[in-house]
Amino acid sequence: MQKFSLLDLSPVPEGKTTADALANTVSLAQAAETAGYHRFWLAEHHNMPGIASAATAVVIGHVAGATSTMRIGAGGIMLPNHAPLMVAEQFGTLAMLYPDRIDLGLGRAPGTDQLTARALRRNMSSDDSFPQDVQELIGYFRDGAEDAPVRAVPGAGTKVPVWILGSSLYGAQLAAYYGLPYAFASHFAPAMLEQALSIYRSTFRPSGTLARPYAMVAAGVC
């Protein structure tokens, strides 16, 4: 069955405020739910006057509270900007408040310019720790032993669905290797869509999360 979803950046209209943008996002989500859309995702961007979704987890909670059936999630959280434990706690809290309705898409890009990325992070390591951070984050969502040295509370046991996002072949390969669902940003890189999906499907390794490849495609709509 084909399902349709919406990705919203909570854009700030010309001459309006971020409060207006967030109110518009809620109205759009409610209209989408009424129309039968399956998911409503919000994206993390920083230092952009035209986008109001920087505090993505907060906006997700606001939208989830204003809807009742649609899945609400992040498309995505830019993991290099955050400690995996904090993301697990935030989305574990959302999962407790809105059971079986929260999704977590993870991106590898900073979602902003380099100067703002430095302001977001305590350090700017040149090492690519994204694969390890993904695994660490997923581990916090599992049913952990009570004597584990570090636990996400809330978070442990919620099994929040984790998606890998990408606009290149890297995300496709990583999602396939870990056996995770994959969302391709074809509104950024439409020419790479077929190749990315082909790599994801042909190299997919079944996991405790997924037995078969499961992909979503993002496209711009006017």
Please give the structural blueprint:
Layout: E1 5-8, H1 18-35, E2 39-42, H2 56-66, E3 71-78, H3 84-97, E4 102-107, H4 114-120, H5 130-141, E5 162-166, H6 169-178, E6 182-185, H7 193-203, E7 215-218
Parallel strand pairs: 1-2, 2-3, 3-4, 4-5, 5-6, 6-7
Helix pairs in contact: 1-2, 3-5, 6-7
Task: Tell me what the structure shows.
This protein is an alpha/beta fold. The protein is built from seven helices and seven strands; from the N terminus they run E-H-E-H-E-H-E-H-H-E-H-E-H-E. It has helices at residues 18-35, 56-66, 84-97, 114-120, 130-141, 169-178, 193-203, and strands spanning 5-8, 39-42, 71-78, 102-107, 162-166, 182-185, 215-218. It has a seven-stranded parallel β-sheet with strand order 1-2-3-4-5-6-7. Helix 1 (18-35) crosses helix 2 (56-66), helix 3 (84-97) packs parallel to helix 5 and helix 6 (169-178) runs parallel beside helix 7. The radius of gyration is 17 Å and the shape is globular. The model has no long low-confidence stretch (mean pLDDT 92).
Summarize this entry quickly.
The protein is 37% helix and 16% strand. By secondary structure, the chain is an alpha/beta fold.
Q: How much helix is in the residues?
A: 25-40%
Shape descriptor: globular
Radius of gyration: 17 Å
**What is the N-to-C order of secondary-structure elements (H for helix, E for strand)?**
EHEHEHEHHEHEHE
User: How would you state the average pLDDT, rounded?
Assistant: 92
Strand order of the largest sheet: 1-2-3-4-5-6-7
Number of strands: 7
Our measurement of the CA-to-CA distance between the termini, rounded to an integer number of angstroms, reads 24 Å
